[in-house]
Amino acid sequence: MNPRAPGKDTVLIYYTNQVKSLVCYSTSQVKLNCWNCKQPLLDKPPFFCMSCKVVQPPEEGTCYFKIMDCDYTFTLDTHKLQQRYLQLQRSLHPDNFSQKSVKEQEYSESQSALVNKAYNTLLKPLSRGLYMLRLEGMHIEEGTESGADSEFLFELLAINEALDEAWTPEEANKIGRDTKEKLAELTKHIDAALCKGELQAAKALLVQMKYYANIEEKVKEKLSRFM
Hints:
It is a single chain. The protein has 227 residues and is mainly α. The chain folds into two domains: 14-123, Helix Hairpins; 150-225, Monooxygenase (Up-down Bundle). It has seven helices and no strands. It has helices at 64-67, 78-92, 102-123, 125-135, 150-164, 169-195, 199-225. The longest helix has 27 residues, at 169-195. The radius of gyration is 22 Å and the shape is elongated.
């Protein structure tokens, strides 16, 4: 439970098997109307008007988890995410609106681009975790070593040196397997930290994940050279 004492406008947050975000679970009662027929928009977020079937403009600041209809959790169902992505793009793709008004074409392009961004952000654990921290008001600056101690950085240096000196695909694959195991371990720890609301711990673990994800990409590049 959120340790802050509840006040009149405070929402209690209970951590069970998934994180709760006030950003993604807004209790706002603001009602939107269709730009075309002025009828109320009932879906959240609204992609189309249920009355006149016209595409709607993106709702500014909508949480990616809401857009993709996913539980707000670090270990989300990526299969469900992919299905939702395909479903939305089939209906929102700009090609479907080539004969529509200029405004509808613009809105379909904006919605389609937003869906792409939401999907790509939530698909991979690292970008998903960083996004979840941003929703909670935390940000990891690119290129910083915040949260990475000297022992950890020395370990990474040794891994990178071993990768540089790998002369066979077998050697590179061994480093790749070890890195995947480390990323899987970090995923479990990050999920546990976010579920408990331990954001600083999650941030430190995500910094480590950034480094290991970088090594994973280097392994792929190294293997491509052997082909």
